[in-house]
Amino acid sequence: MFGPLGFSLAPYIKSSRTLSGWFKPFAAWYAQAAGYRQFGLKYDDLLVEERDDVQRAIGRLTTREGYDRAYRFKRASQCSVLQKQLPKEEWIKPEEDVRYLRPHVVEVEKENLERQAWDTASVKRN
To answer: Which residue of 18, 92, 94, 105 pairs with 37 in a disulfide if CB–CB is 3.0 to 4.6 A?
Structure first.
């Protein structure tokens, strides 16, 4: 429920077939209504970059992923300046909107927890 990206009921909802059936149409509608796909952005592009764990995760992206991320930001800011959305054929499709940054953020969070555990370890002499 509590992860590095905040509170989430997603694991609980995904584990239940009934809840998953109820929430999937709403989730698809909400993602479309949010409007970030119409500007060529993916969900992970919306993560707050000022967090240390997200900064470290961005540093772990491959060269291609980093280039694609920068291109999406430049294209979205150009759309914002022009106050127009991208043409419909250039919108990000739901199957293309994959979580490319989340695995890196989770990995960084695990490393931080492990580092914290080792930093607080105490050594006793016999």
So the answer is: 92
